[in-house]
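Working notes for the structural subgroup meeting. M.R. asked for a predicted model of this chain before we commit to crystallization trials. I am recording the input and output together here so anyone reviewing the notebook later can reproduce the run.

Input as submitted:
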Amino acid sequence: MRRALLSPIAIGLSLLTLLTIAGCAKAGFWQYHRGVVRHEANSQVKANIALPVLTESEFNSIVNDSTALQKNQWRTVSVTGTFIPEHELLLRNRYVEGKYGFGVITLFKSNAGQSFWVDRGWIQAGKDAKTPPNVERTSTGQIEISARLRTNDLNNRVKGSFFALPSNGKTELQKWDSSQSVKTADFSLDLMQASNPLLTPQFPNPLPELTDGPHFAYALQWLLFAFLALFGRILIFREELRSNK
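Returned structure, recorded in token form:
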């Protein structure tokens, strides 16, 4: 038995087993933590979409409070202001009912002086790659919008997407940087309804998938791998004992 436990090969196998178990346990707890975070986020989304609409005064009172913004994300807000049509971009790789299209994001300036991006929903792509999609132009007049509050940064919003044709049909990509003097807040809105019916999106940006995903299953899977590693080491130890008799 001493040889089965203390031989160089046995020690190496035992260390490898311990490292495997530790790695599987770490991966399992990581997946479990991700599942908990996602579950809490889903619960917050479900709760916030059922809350009453934030009035314009209530919305203006939290726009500079990151904690309050985070707490109210996905809640519907009402705000009045003006679209800035010259600051607009399209996001590719959006699909609705299996059809390829673009997301339209336009700069909006509220009457309180805040500038932020408004996701105006999905539009269908043109007939070919050279044909820009038909985007409903915004006016420069006052408009009241009802939209869902999004607190994640715009760069995270468009992660995995690419800037496409500007809505004026030009082929050059517009870059939103400091040279354009565009300064926006650290939140955005998903447009649901506008006082101008033409700007109410037919296909607004959908809610996130409200499922816990596979994280809890993956956590259990990693723990199972750890158990299999331990079980395998025990079997090898038993075989070594038999061979040494």
